[in-house]
Design brief:
about 140 residues, 3 helices, 2,3-Dihydroxybiphenyl 1,2-Dioxygenase, domain 1, alpha+beta, eight-stranded mixed beta sheet
Length: about 140
């Protein structure tokens, strides 16, 4: 099962406010981070899985918010990013981006029929994820092909 769905948004604070007011989503706060040349902002909902992720990113980045709000990807844990990524590519799901060369163990593959990506995140990052976004949250299972 996927553990999060990600939306790219042009205004992360407004989106957090809107989802909080409309359906009561609680957020863990905003993290400002960088990957390579890109500085971006992200937030995760509390209480998942599944979690909601919001990302506000610069033009030219994988999370280019200048193109408007949209569903970006479904996130899955994997025991082996490289092996699972190869399996997806071999089965027709083209890799769009790999953060592995930039020191982060994840990739995005495109599901063309939905125009949405699949993010494969190495399960070794799960404890850090939970400690940051949902302290005390239960471990989640990995997708492995």
């Amino acid at each position: 099962m996927f553990y999060h769905v990600c939306f790219v948004v042009p205004d992360i604070e407004q989106t957090m406010e809107d989802l909080g007011r409309s359906v009561g989503v609680e957020w863990s706060g905003i993290l400002e981070d960088s990957l390579g040349e890109w500085e971006y902002r992200l937030a995760f909902s509390r209480g998942g899985p599944p979690y909601l992720e919001l990302v506000q990113g610069p033009p030219g980045s994988p999370w280019d918010s200048s193109r408007g709000a949209r569903c970006h990807h479904l996130g899955f844990w994997t025991k082996d990013v490289e092996e699972s990524s190869r399996w997806l590519a071999d089965n027709g799901f083209e890799m769009e981006f790999s953060a592995c060369p930039l020191g982060r163990p994840y990739t995005y593959h495109k599901v063309k029929s939905m125009d949405v990506g699949i993010e494969l995140m190495d399960i070794s990052r799960q404890r850090r994820f939970l400690d940051t976004w949902n302290p005390g949250g239960e471990s989640m299972s990995a997708f492995d092909a």
